[in-house]
Amino acid sequence: MTQELLQASLQEKIADYHQWRNALADTIIGYRDWLVRSDNSNSLQELRLTDFADMLRKDRLILALVAEFSRGKTETINALFFADHDQRLLPSEAGRTTMCPTELLWEEGEEPCIKLLPIETRLTDDSLTYLKTLPKLWKKFRLETDFPEQMRKTLRQLIEKKEVSIEEAIKLGLWSPKDPNNALQNRTHIEVPVWRHAIINYPHELLKNGLVVIDTPGLNVLGTEPELTHKVIPGAHAVLFLTATDTGVTHSDMQIWNEFIRDQAKYK
Predict the structure, then answer these.
(1) Which of 108, 131, 268, 262 is nearest to 196 (CA)?
(2) What's the rounded Cα separation, in Å, for the pair 194 and 99?
(3) More confident residue, 52 or 10
(4) How many Å apart are CA 138 and CA 20, to the nearest integer?
(5) pLDDT tens-digit profile of 32-85?
(6) Model confidence pLDDT, tens digit, residues 195-239
């Protein structure tokens, strides 16, 4: 089956789910209204039915892409969502892959954009879920969907790195002196990602119909973001685990599978 047929099939299934979800929500609202007309309802019951219908309409299918660095996650996203632009919009060339977990979704009422959370937010104990409610902390950049080259340049911020001292890296939780690999390195500074998390709001039909794709950068990030491993991946409706065809299943691949997927994910 060609890539085009696979994508069309996926779009059809996601669209069917979207229609079923909305039809069920409409049925619940209809049932609520019938109870009101027949005097068989109370305010608490009406509120619960309304909340349930709203929850259904806002429900999303979450697909998590998990793999070590340079396993093709970003290429998969480029093929699924940006193929119409005839170029790779997300950075995926050798040695220049996304450095932070990235969510791809569509939020109605919000312009196409990328929102980036600075790495310095790791200095607090606040969860990612909470930080998402604080828009002032995020750097927002508009995506000009009619100009692919502009989008490509804007999205390259996903690979940005900067040099920090070892002391600062330890405070950020990105360097451990107890790690034997680190202990052997006589270094005063290391490179760290500029951003901790990214959200791309993009008007693709799959995303409009409720699909959310989460791209996880690799083993190091999975190990430093507990919320990813204990909430996001277990909460995903499906996990796509990628390995490389040229190297086969490596030690780090097996480490990711054993520690973060095998006993955590619901559907693999």
Answers:
(1) 131
(2) 8
(3) 52
(4) 34
(5) 999 888 888 788 889 999 999 998 888 888 998 887 777 778 888 888 888 787
(6) 999 999 999 999 999 999 998 876 656 556 767 766 777 888 888
Provide the pLDDT confidence category of residue 147 given band limits of 50, 70 and 90.
Answer: very high
Q: Where are the beta strands (DSSP E) in the chain?
A: 61-66, 102-105, 113-118, 139-142, 161-165, 189-193, 195-201, 211-215, 238-241
163-173: per-residue pLDDT in tens?
A: 999 899 888 88
Residue matched to tokens 């190990």? 223
Residues 239, 266: Cα–Cα separation, whole Å: 8
| Longest alpha-carbon distance in the chain | 77
Pick from 98, 120, 78: nearest CA to 220: 98
Q: How far is CA 194 from the centre of its chain?
A: 17
- Model confidence, pTM: 0.81
- In angstroms, rounded to a whole number, what is the distance separating the alpha carbons of residues 201 and 206? 12
Residue 148 corresponds to which tokens in the numbers above?
Answer: 């692919």
* Closest to 67 in 3D by CA, of 267, 266, 250, 264: 250
Instruction: Give residues with Cβ within 8 angstroms of 94, minimum separation 6.
Output: 70
Sort strands 113-118 and 189-193 into parallel, antiparallel or unpaired.
Answer: unpaired
Structural contact between residues 141 and 101, judged by C-beta atoms closer than 8 angstroms: no
pLDDT of res. 111: 95
Concatenate the DSSP letters of all residues of 72-89 into one string: SHHHHHHHHHSGGGTS--
- Name residue 96's amino acid: R
Residues in the chain: 268
Contact (CB, 8 A) for 157 and 114: yes
